[in-house]
Write the structure tokens for this entry.
Amino acid sequence: MKPVVAIVGRPNVGKSTFFNRVTRTKDAIVDNFPGVTRDSIYRDAVWNDVEFTLVDTGGFAGGDEDDMTSKVRFQVRQSIDDADAIIMMLDGKGGVSPFDSDIIKLLRSVKKPVFYVVNKIDGDEKEINLYDFYSLGIEKPYPVSSEHGYGVPDFLDDLVNTIPSHVQGETQEITKIAVIGRPNTGKSSLINRILGKDRHIVSDIPGTTRDAVDSLCEIKGNPYLIIDTAGIRRKSRVSKKIEKFSVIKALKSLDRCDVALIIIDASEGITEQDISIAGYAYERGCGCIFLLNKWDTVEKGDKTKKKFIDQLRYDAKFLSFAPVMAISAKTGLGVAKIFNLVEEVYGQYRFRIGTGELNRVLESAISKTEPSLYKGRRLKFYYATQVSVKPPTFLCFVNYPDSVHFSYKRYLINQIRAGAGLDKTPVQLIFRKREGDRHKKK
């Protein structure tokens, strides 16, 4: 495993800016408003050929102001416990704060390397600001500027020389799962239930999750990367800059996932926004599973579940292949069965069929139902081959590719599904003209 390095400090000292610089990403949302980061964010980094995982944590504030503050502090402590080394970040511009002393007291009892980094030191002339921090009992403060990069290389040299080395192990393919849905549908609660710990902050306040937060776990010997995303509201309701960034990150998480768990609040019924979110996953070619959360709060009847699923199938016809499960993140109802379904969907999502078998399926389909004529000429389907997986994508050569009616294309996709047993994954079919036909035309 790669060594884990956690960045801690009070709000607005520049932890996320430093995180983005070292990981060479823009994964952590940065804003001048304190308390933007809440959940801990994990990303891999490399310096001097040494690999490690960097963790950006929420701002560690003092006092018991509200429930959110206490939950952020709990997550920071958890990140400290899980880390192999800790970066304590201080504000060289704002000076020493009482909150700094509180965190340092906590770190005194930690038996692992702790690095004290004074941020917002933009050059040699600003290093005079370091002297105030010696009053905290710090032996070696590192002057850096997360924004401009001053002092960062020197600090990273010392960091990678101190942290434990990366233990190489057998690499196993990781299934990436994105949990998406409207705000407050129970996405973070579900992930906490799966992980068996309060890794993600949960609140009744919509919009609690802001970043796309990754969590690694192992279920029945299989590794998974679970991505918790911010709730996606209608564009007309998104006004704050932070929320806009959060929605963008949630949508980008669909580009790097294999299976999307689309969470629907069963207590509120199926909404137009639920269907829009499902459409985002469909457009990106993800494997999809609908999870009807909070099922324990729904009044049960003989046909309640069937009516719910029928309505969902009607509203989201484009995801007719996506399985539907009723769960409760709060009570654990059905949660244990989710990964059986994920494995089934993922198995089909990366399925590959032989060219011979694929063409036999297509020949049978075309002989059963021939395509319509194009300008009095018969459409000829020469042969097909699978060109990629995730999702299964097939290329079919035909004499007039632009003239294949969408309804006939849908018919052929359904025949491929039936012939290859691909009833739970998206399938893509592309038509193209043969190279030989183009040369003849010329």
Residues 29-38, 200-211 have pLDDT under 50 and may be disordered. The two ends are 58 Å apart (CA to CA).
